[in-house]
Structures are given as C-alpha cells and as structure tokens.
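One-letter codes give the sequence; backbone shape is given numerically. An example follows:

. . .
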Amino acid sequence: MKIAFIGIGTMGAPMAMRLLAAGHELTVHNRTRAHEEAIAKAGAKRAASPKEAAQATDIVITMVSDTPDVAEVVLSDTGALNGMSSGSVLIDMSTISPSVTKEIAAKLAERGIEMLDAPVSGGSEGAKNGTLSIMVGGKAKVLEQVKSVLEVLGKTITLVGPVGSGQLSKAINQVIIAGTYAAVAEGIALGLAAGIDIEAAHKAVSGGAAASWILSNRASNMIDNYYPLGFRTRLHRKDLGVALDAARELGVPIPVSAYVEQMETSLIKRGYGDEDLSNIARIVREAAGLKLEG
C-alpha cells in the first residue's frame, strides 16, 4: 500500500521502518525534518508538509505528541486532510483527547475520508519489535481494510468501539500503569530500606499475583536508580492529563492517577521529563531517605 507516516519520533521512527521493511511504499514527514533522514536512506520518500505526504496515498498514519499537534498536522492549511482523497483512511496512533478525535473524524467524513483512532501500548521496545497493543476506535469494515498494515506494527489489535473509543481505552491503560509504576516503586523502596536481597525478592514476587509487565521490565531500573529511556515521563504526564480530563467529564474519581500526575509534574520541573517513566522511583526513594544517586 501507499502510506504516509507523519511523526518520526521515538515511537514513530521504528514503526515507519517496519512498514518500509514490509514492502509498503512510504512517504514520511516530521516537523523536525532531520528526523526523516535515516528512514529516507532506507528508501522512504520525504515530504515538505503533511499535505504533500498525504497526496496519492491509501493510508495516512499520524504519530505525534499531543492533541493540538494532531489537529495541526491533519486540519491546518498544510495538513493531511487537504492532501487526502475520498476513500482513503487516516489512522491516528497518537494519544490524544477522545472528544477532539471525534471532531477530527467528523471533518474528515465531510470529505469522504474514514478515520480510525488507534493509540498503542508497548513502548519503544514494542514499536521496534512489532509487538504493540493497538486499541482501535472506528468502523469494523475500515479496520478490516487496513488490518494488514496494523499487523506489521502490533501483536494485539482490538476494535473497542466507534471513533474515540481507542483513545478512551488508552486512557484506561495509562491510568492502570500509573498506579502500577507507583506501586512497584513503593515495593522496591520498602525492600531496599529493609536491607533484604532485593533481587531475590523481585524474583519471588514476579512469580505470584503481583506479576506485571512493569515489575518484569522496569523494576531493575528502580533497583539501580537508573532510568534509560523507554517511555518518557513527560509524555505519560500528558497522557494522564487526557485521562483526568475524561474522568472529570464522566464524573469518575481517579485519585491514584491524580497523585501520580503530581509526581510526574515534579520530576519534569526538576529536569527528569525525558527519562523513562520508572523514574517515579526517584520520588519514593527520596521520601524513604534512600541513596539518590544511581
């Protein structure tokens, strides 16, 4: 298929590379144009704007940072909408506001363009390995039309409802992992403060009811007090903002998520926003009086 991929960042770059390697004809655009260079060397075409990238394509995929960014790259004068043809499909894989997603879908529909909101979970590792979990909002027939493309990117592809439902599902995901990161950080700090063999304790609890992806893949960061990038803290804080807004609209209290958002805000203000989200353990370690340097 002819695909335009807009947003060549930490997640978008490996996703676009996978599509190119799978044999799709790929055109890319990124606001920081230098990010296009590596994938262009691998065979992708470069476009000066989202509009140019979207011309003569079957599918446009957007993977950018926030709600205003998606609105800009889709709806502006140089946005993808003005380059797409009736019958083509926009797949937004960013994490943004469900209500704005519906507004964008309505404007696309006026031009005969279908939209799926398909945010992902699985971090940069999942993007590189094609093992992302993809939560899709939209029409079943449209998903079937583009499913072979999404299968290059994800291991689990689930239609969760109409447009906007994918974003709501991602909000649920971010709420759950927020609490899990905080709980793992607290458990690790408890073990460190007690002076037990924390590696052995980690192994022990990983085999029981506490088992989780975060415990298996990020507890070692918390033990070492070292937080190499997997998923940026500042991006998760943005995602939690989306979830908190949705919760307020629906009248659902999510106090654990509100607390974790405060922790992340503090980390960002202190210059840790580009570390992996497991750096929530920094705050727990400090509160426990544990060694602060890795």
